[in-house]
Specification:
By secondary structure, this protein is of the alpha/beta class. Helix content is 29%, strand content 19%. It is globular.
C-alpha cells in the first residue's frame, strides 16, 4: 500500500509575552480556532492519519493536540520528535525515512521554512509558502518510508485556513 504524509504547519502563534522563548510560544486565539477547523476539513475528506508526529515546540504540539482531539485520536499517542523543531529539509526527510512502516498514513506537525521547503523538495510544485495551519497531503508510490526522497511525492491536496471552502 502506498504511503501518505500529511504535513501541517503549526497554527498562528502568540508573540505577546516577550519573556517566552521561541520554543515556548503558545497559539493565539486565531490559531486555537483554525486548528480544529482544519481538522474538521480533514474529516470531511475522510482523511484520518494513523499516526501523529510533532515538533515538541508548544505551538506545534498544541496544533497537533487540537487536530487529534477533533479527529478522535488520543493526544497521548502523539509522538514528539525534537529533530522537527527548526529542521531543514534533509533532517525532515531523515525523520520521515525512519517512520514506522506499520502506518501508511502519518501526519507531521512542524514549522516554516522547513515544512514549505520539504513540500518543494518532495513534489514538483510551485508552492512557496504554506501559511500557518496550512496542510499538504502527499502520496508516495511505495510502501516503505525509507524510500521517501527528492521528487518522489505527489500532492493530493493543499488547504489552509483562509482557503474558501465549497
Amino acid at each position: 500500500m502506498s504511503k501518505q504524509l500529511l504535513l501541517v504547519r503549526h497554527a498562528k502563534s502568540d508573540w505577546d509575552d516577550i519573556k517566552l522563548s521561541d520554543f515556548e510560544r503558545p497559539l493565539n486565539s486565531r490559531g486555537e480556532k483554525n486548528a480544529p477547523e482544519m481538522a474538521k476539513r480533514l474529516l470531511r475528506r475522510g482523511k484520518i492519519p494513523q499516526q501523529i508526529v510533532s515538533s515538541p515546540a508548544m505551538r506545534a504540539l498544541t496544533t497537533a493536540r487540537l487536530f487529534a482531539k477533533e479527529l478522535g485520536l488520543k493526544k497521548s499517542d502523539i509522538i514528539k520528535e525534537p529533530r522537527i523543531y527548526e529542521a531543514l529539509t534533509t533532517t525532515l526527510i531523515n525523520v520521515i525515512n525512519k517512520l514506522d512502516n506499520n502506518y501508511s498514513f502519518t501526519s507531521l506537525f512542524g514549522h516554516n521554512p522547513g515544512i514549505t521547503d520539504l513540500v518543494g523538495n518532495l513534489c514538483d510544485t510551485d508552492l512557496y509558502n504554506i501559511p500557518t495551519c496550512g496542510m499538504v497531503l502527499i502520496q508516495f508510490p511505495f510502501d516503505d518510508w525509507s524510500l521517501v526522497s527528492t521528487g518522489t511525492g505527489e500532492i493530493v491536496f493543499y488547504d489552509y485556513p483562509k482557503n474558501e471552502q465549497d
